[in-house]
Amino acid sequence: MVHVLTLLAKVNKPLSSTFIAGSVNTNPVMIRQIVGRLRDVSIVETTSGSTGGTVLKKSSAQITLKEIYQLTKKETFFSLHPNEPNPHCPVGRNIQGVLIEVFDQMDTLVEEALGKITIADIVERVTRQEIQRSQV
Question: Considering only CA atoms, which of 115, 119, 72, 79 is closest in space to residue 96?
């Protein structure tokens, strides 16, 4: 998602899922799924047709990585084991409650840090890195 949003911010014109997929090096179907999720939360908007595509709906300076994290955190971070632990074991009967507390603390710290980074910041870093590469 960050790659897609950074590309949209840097190019600043409607992009097709095929074009975006070429940058991400994935299938356009995957990009359409990502774009659909971003559209659902009003970060991007899409138009169909030969001149259509996806554009940012908000300024890149208004989109934080915290928003992206909140969309994806269930897919990317720790989770509890699907089987219930042994309730007769002192670790088993307590581990899930402790881990939930740890995950909540971790979530708070991650969201706090990511809330300070915007897509505009990522665009700036990508641009700076590209300039450094071209000077080598």
Answer: 79
